[in-house]
Specification:
The chain is built from 13 helices and ten strands. It is of the alpha/beta class. The strands form two sheets. Strands 1-2-10-7-8-9 form a six-stranded mixed sheet. Strands 5-4-3-6 form a four-stranded parallel sheet, sandwiched between helices. The structure holds pyridoxal-5'-phosphate.
Length: about 350
């Protein structure tokens, strides 16, 4: 049985050689090769990793004749923004429960930037919730579903990050796509990669990549870089999602060797360490690859740590890049105040000194 899937993303996304990023980070020559899967290019406003999951989740919603999508996330959630875009495209209503630390749960009290701006522009209904309420997000989404049903809507709940067994199939499919690219002799193929590395925020990508990498012979190992919770938490979450995915597709019998590495999660969700911010700026200026401080920048910093430790010596590595520039704008203040000023003035010379104009 094939699982229903919509065509929403622009696929296949390219895979770029990126050894130069290793040199910038001081680990040139240690890996056999670094390639970057450009899932930041999966689309326009819906781009990033979430649209791959939404191809399955929205298909299911339409099969069930849903008229409204309900989901949740942080105030700058990429997943919520992608859901708002997909809902608008499919003519569905979107209700987003977004977590904020602002003392007042008033939309006009929250800066209308980045993803939140797009959520509103796309016509999604945004309901702000507190950090404490967010812990009860599944119950709250069920309450919203009941409320909408009473008004004659047919609501469909998408969990945080689109991370359930069905959403994870988006990254199983992404691994099939990578296999086809290797078979077409792209990225040094048909030889497979040794390891796939990516950011992990709600576990669905990790489950899908580990299942898909094994199924399609893309890599024997997967490293998921946790950006918020710890290793134990994600091991449980991913295990649950793997079980759910297998219930949908029983042919997903094998799983790549999956490591959750939580050493790059930085001070807290959404906040990168000074070293991570400096790495983001350095890589951007020297390679044109713009990583964000919430997900991909932390994951890349984790990759560099592993490279420095020798864990990636001689390996062919695929790094999944999954952000769209929108969040860079939303988070620009997280990077600029410290890193760019610092990098312009001190250690990041001498090669940066030759670059102009300055930001
Ligand atoms: C750009 C980006 N990378 C990685 C992730 C994490 O993926 P997952 O939630 O499937 O663990 C997210 C989640 O929002 C994301 O937006």
């Amino acid at each position: 049985m094939t699982t229903p899937r919509l065509t929403l993303a622009h696929l296949p996304t390219p895979i770029d050689a990126a050894d130069h990023a290793l040199e910038v980070a001081g680990v040139g020559g240690r890996l056999a090769a670094l390639y970057v899967k450009r899932d930041d290019m999966t689309g326009g406003v819906e781009a990033g990793n979430k649209v791959r999951k939404l191809e399955y989740l929205a298909a299911d919603a339409l099969e069930r004749k849903a008229t409204a999508l309900i989901t949740c996330g942080g105030i700058q959630s990429n997943h919520a923004r992608a859901t708002a875009a997909v809902a608008a495209r499919l003519g569905l209503r979107a209700v987003l429960l977004l977590r904020t630390t602002e003392p007042e749960l008033r939309l006009d009290a929250v800066p209308l930037t980045g993803n939140l701006f797009l959520d509103r522009l796309l016509g999604a209904e945004v309901r702000l919730i507190t950090v404490a309420q967010y812990r009860e997000r599944n119950a709250l989404m069920r309450d919203v579903a009941t409320e909408l049903a009473q008004k004659g809507e047919r609501p469909y709940i998408i969990p945080e990050g689109g991370s359930n067994g069905l959403g994870a199939l988006g990254y199983v499919e992404a691994m099939r796509e990578v296999r086809a690219q290797l078979d077409a002799s792209q990225s040094g193929g048909p030889r497979s990669f040794d390891v796939v590395i990516h950011a992990c925020g709600s576990g669905g990508t990790a489950a899908g990549v580990a299942l898909g990498a094994a199924r399609y012979g893309v890599a024997g190992a997967v490293v998921a870089m946790a950006v918020c919770d710890d290793r134990r938490t994600f091991e449980d979450v991913v295990a649950r999602i793997v079980v759910e995915a297998r219930a949908i597709d029983p042919e997903l019998t094998s799983l790549a060797d999956l490591t959750i590495d939580d050493r790059a999660k930085g001070p807290m969700y959404g906040v990168a360490s000074e070293e991570q911010k400096e790495l983001i700026v350095r890589v951007a200026r020297k390679t044109g690859l713009v990583f964000d401080p919430v997900y991909t920048g932390k994951a890349f910093a984790g990759l560099i740590t592993r490279a420095k430790e020798g864990a990636l010596d001689g390996k062919r590595v695929l790094f999944i890049h999954r952000i769209w520039c929108c969040i860079e704008l939303a988070n620009s203040r997280l990077i600029t105040t410290w890193s760019i000023t610092w990098c312009d003035s001190t250690t990041c010379s001498p090669f940066w000194a030759t670059l102009s104009p300055r930001m």
